[in-house]
Amino acid sequence: MNKPKIKICGIKDIGTLECCIKNKVDFFGLIFYKKSPRNISIDDALKLIHHSKNKKIKSVGVFVNEPIDKLNLILKKLKVDYIQLHGEEDERYISEVKKHNSIKIIKNIPIQDPVDLLTVNNYPNADMFLFDYKPMKNELPGGNSKQFSWELIKNIEIDKPWFISGGINIKNINKINNFTIPYGIDISSGVEEMLGIKSNNKITLLIESYESK
Questions:
Q1: N or C of the chain: less Cβ packing under 10 Å?
Q2: Is 205 exposed, middle or buried (0-12, 13-18, 19+ CB in 10 A)?
Q3: What's the gap between Cα 178 and its chain centre?
Q4: What is the tens place of the pLDDT at every residue in 86-119?
Q5: How far apart are alpha carbons 120 and 108 in whole angstroms?
Q6: How many C-beta atoms lie closer than 10 Å to residue 95's C-beta?
Q7: Is 5-212 a CATH 3.20.20.70 domain?
Q8: What are the sequence ranges of the domains in the chain?
């Protein structure tokens, strides 16, 4: 079986993106959520997307409860490869986005209890899922450096590709395959030198550690 793909989320500069490209990272996430320390402007995102063209890495625009009209305008300008909906977007929202855009959608599924896994059935038009730690009331929708219990997805069987996310770093990434083999692994805070600031050294060391297993 192929190794899971790697997604580094919260990229904000070309130096970090180039580090991801050199390390053969598969996806890079651009976060368009103003409350996030990893938020990026449209203009800066355009520079990164342009830099990534014709490279073996895919762009993912990450949105949280973005008004659909505004999202459609952003997507026309950015032309990202995928979008990730990381808020409370429902199936109607996903259908509406797809009506106006030919784009693949990753829908986040916050996980705390086994019953949370059943919510994948609420999004038949999503193309992929991302299982993440379920935030508390005062926490950000993602990037909280916290991990949900991987035991909950040990025997998961769904017919769509999915990512595992939440508190993944060099110390635990190689333990994931003790529980499951996801389509992809999503990493953000685990490769940061400080909140919202990626470390090229940490990215390189994590990929080297993962590839060596």
A1: N
A2: middle
A3: 21
A4: 999 999 999 999 999 999 999 999 999 999 999 9
A5: 9
A6: 12
A7: yes
A8: 5-212
